Amino acid sequence: MRKLLFLSLCILSLLGCAAPKESKKGPELLVGVSKASINPPLGAFIAGDKQNRVFTGVLDSLYAKAVVLYDGEKALALVTVDCIGLLYPELQKVREAVALMPFDIPFSPENIVISSTHTHSGPDVVGIWGKDYSQSGRNPEYMDFLVQTISAQILEASKSLQPVSARFARASFGESWVENICGEEIDREVTSIRFVDQEEKTVASLTNFACHPTHLDAVFSEISADYLAGFYKAMEKNWGGEHLFLQGAIGGWVQPKDKADYQIALQRGRDLAETVINAHQKETPLQSDRIFFSRKTILFPVENEAWKALAAGGIFDRNIGEMVESEVTWFGIGEATFATHPGESTPFHSLETKKMMPEGPKFVLGLGQDALGYILKPSYFEDPTLPHAAYLTRTSLGKNTAETMMQAISELSQSTKK
Known about the structure:
Blueprint: H1 2-18, E1 30-37, E2 57-58, E3 63-70, E4 75-81, H2 88-99, E5 112-116, H3 140-159, E6 162-163, E7 165-172, E8 178-180, E9 189-196, E10 202-209, E11 222-223, H4 227-239, E12 242-247, E13 254-256, H5 262-279, E14 284-285, E15 291-301, H6 305-312, E16 323-333, E17 336-340, E18 344-345, H7 347-356, E19 362-365, E20 374-375, H8 379-382, H9 389-394, H10 401-415
Parallel strand pairs: 2-11, 4-5, 10-12, 17-19, 18-20
Antiparallel strand pairs: 1-3, 1-6, 3-4, 7-9, 7-14, 8-13, 9-10, 15-16, 16-17
Helix pairs in contact: 2-3, 4-5
Protein name: Neutral ceramidase
Binding site for Zn(2+): 118, 212
EC number: 3.5.1.23
């Protein structure tokens, strides 16, 4: 009897060991990606530095890239655009266009995030770099093309969804050539997520880092993504797939230490790619596939009279009075948390935003959803002797912009905890 009981227990134990492992619960993350060239016509006005500069050639192409993510319940579109800073009205036009498109998945146009890379070798999509302040540097036909192209990439990306797993990595970068020329703190963190298919091939990646793409600013008159051209090419060569660069908090004033020739700019982009690729040698899988998304419309006070005058004169194609409408977003992919800043915010505001985020990879997208100039500490308005204070405040909405932004971000961060 004892032998029979012993044998029965052994058989049960072996059956337990041979039982199949429980499959992963929860939604499965699907990702699709698409991109298109957005090169402006030669002769178009160049954004950045002095007015009345026009393109004479092409060094490398500019792109609008879209990644659509779907967890089985909620979808999100993340778009990067190689331009100095797409304004909020264009985001609204993209949402209107996408709302009319035939998606195969439940997709809300509200769940679109657009991040500009801020290259100073791209087209004037704002208006202030025309011949002078008597006329806008924006080309209406090009702006329509840009909205249509971005919208089409979102739809195309949604048509190529495939199952992926997501892995993240973090590193530090730019110590030798990136500085905050205002002498203040700097956020050197590189945060990256790559999405790989069932054959371990990279479908797409997201990389967040902060530095002005201004190596070529006022030195070249050709179209270029600046150092990001080197980054894109190196990432594609090593991993395949598509790669989105999410600009960080570059305000107050995160720049390359020097102007550089084109080959040096490309090499610095390749160095960034190498840093990302090396960091992923010890990558960490995201444990959750859940997508969450929240946004908040904001009315920013316009304390800078120049902004009102430029809007009244038609230089800005935007309603700007005592207040101007914009938005911030707070969203996530699993444990990865993202927040947008609608302009060139300072590293201080990036670091403060990251303090609100839970453990996991943290992304702060400067020039996300809008391009409202420099978003600064109040001290720059109170002490004009601070380095570059005169220029930075002249291109800012005003002293209260940062507080308004950070309050909205804080509210969104708290709402996700409930």
